[in-house]
Here is the input.
Amino acid sequence: MELPRVFAIRHSSHRILNPFDATKLATLGAALGVERDQQVLDLACGKGEMLCTWARDHDIVGTGVDINPPFVAAAQARASELGVSDRVTVLHDNATDWVSTAPVDIAACLGATWIGGGVSGTIELLRRSIRPGGMILIGEPYWRAEPPDQETVEGCHATSYSTFESLPGLVRLFGELDYDLVEMVLADEDTWDRYAAAQWLSIRRFLDANPDDPIADELRDELRTAPILHVRFQRAWLGWGAFALVPRN
Ligand SMILES: C[S@@+](CC[C@H](N)C(=O)[O-])C[C@H]1O[C@@H](n2cnc3c(N)ncnc32)[C@H](O)[C@@H]1O
Here is the structure.
């Protein structure tokens, strides 16, 4: 399956398809203390930046799974560019029920918890791939504060307040699922800008090069509305974090 063209166009310049920048991704690897030869599985890995940079910086062995062939190709190209093709394997597959045949040290899903039907289901899916004592890494948005009205909710691409948890709500949920939260790294407004604002430039460049494309009008509308939605709503109300969980013993 290929994702809608607009998604690919928006993210054409992104290596990281979530509100982290390269520094946050590196902070996360350092915070978790990932080590040489640790096995890391990344479901819905996108362009594979986490696995490739952690393989370069920490010598991990990574497996990524993504449903979108161009992202799989981009991840493989990135592994080659960073000289880690022998350490990173990227597979084209649907990750909704993907379980590693050999248990891994860390099983991750950043920014795609729909693959398990939500946060709880994705944690359960990832758990099936980790070795005893292994770690789960989950990346998810949260409300930084309770949105005051439905306009704010929809401005954050949510349908209702219950679309996301608050940060305390997420942490409470991890406990209710019987996991210890052992580390976390959170996006900030600047790194959200890298994720959101970089999309505007990619869209604009596409429009300049392809003014008569069948989806040009759709993208022109998006470019008119996305910046104001970001600065009015998402930048202020939405957080995003990567949370490291270990099953309680
Ligand atoms: C928001 S991006 C996050 C990508 C990556 N985890 C990152 O943080 O850079 C969501 C990713 O999920 C992938 N995806 C969506 N549904 C999927 C599925 N059922 N199985 C595997 N990958 C999926 C998309 O192709 C896309 O790469």
Remarks:
- The mean pLDDT is 96.
- The chain has nine helices and eight strands.
- The radius of gyration is 18 Å.
